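so my prof wants the structure for this chain in the tokens format not the other one, which i didnt know existed until like an hour ago. anyway here's the sequence
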Amino acid sequence: MKYPQGSEWRKWDLHIHSIHSCEPRAKLSVENIFEAASANNIAVISITDHSNVDGLDEALDVWKNGTDSTGKRFSDSISFFPGVELKADAGKKGVHFLAIFPPTIPAKGYEQPVDKTFLKESFLSTIGCSESKIKSLGTGDYQKGLFKVAVNFDKTANLVRSLGGIIIVHSGIKASSIETEISHPAAEALPEELLNTLGPQKEILMSECVDICELPNWSKYHQKQKKFYLETFNKPCVVFSDSHSIYINSCPTWIKADPTFEGLKQVLNEPDDRICIQNPPQVLDHVRQNKPRYIQSVSIKPTSTEPGWFNDTIPLNAN
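here's what i got, hopefully its the right format
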């Protein structure tokens, strides 16, 4: 068993941009990202470039074969999920959201790796993000086309789910968020008015297309929004780094789950219990500082030499 102690609190960051996002401020190489994640003790990451997965095969290679400063393979300490950031056709300028996928999906008789070729053929081309379409939108300039292409939110969300993935939408006052793009009140409105403004389109999208809300920071205003999203839609909130040129993760999101895609999906069922933003969860501080007594493992020893008796040790965690 790879994670014998069960669900533990770990830092996750599912919104990072590499140079493949093709914008001037995107300066992180794929290798830079894994090195930074390792240095910051991030357990799970996703590289989410704009409207493309051009760096995905490189990322998978670095993840599998690259090593950290101690010589340890990145794949031994970091889980990696394929991802992409997209712009929806909903909103004034387009709501931004992340599509995050599992490393493999079941196919007929085997597990299909979610790599660059698979996502380009089975996902991006289907939602209107083929290379030829992007080039045509940029009048022959692929880089310009990446920032012009917009996808149908509902259709894309359904396809992502059919491929086993999840949708994380920009929320709060994050740039291109569902709040700033759809049915938000005048600029002078109070925060409470913003929270209570739900146009029909936004309500449908939040209920049917969104799995997780990504906030830009952990201000008091966004702490209120976390409560609002949870109570109104039962949607968990996270804060990811959205790093471009330098890796900065000053407000990490801690998730209590195995560092697997199944662990991420478990969060959707228990959104209030499995996410802690900014500060390490109290139980970790408590264990680290006060060193209380807790059961680290349970050993089952046989009382007979006959076959079939248990002889095993079950590790437990401090949570």
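also thought this was worth mentioning. The chain has a mean pLDDT of 89.
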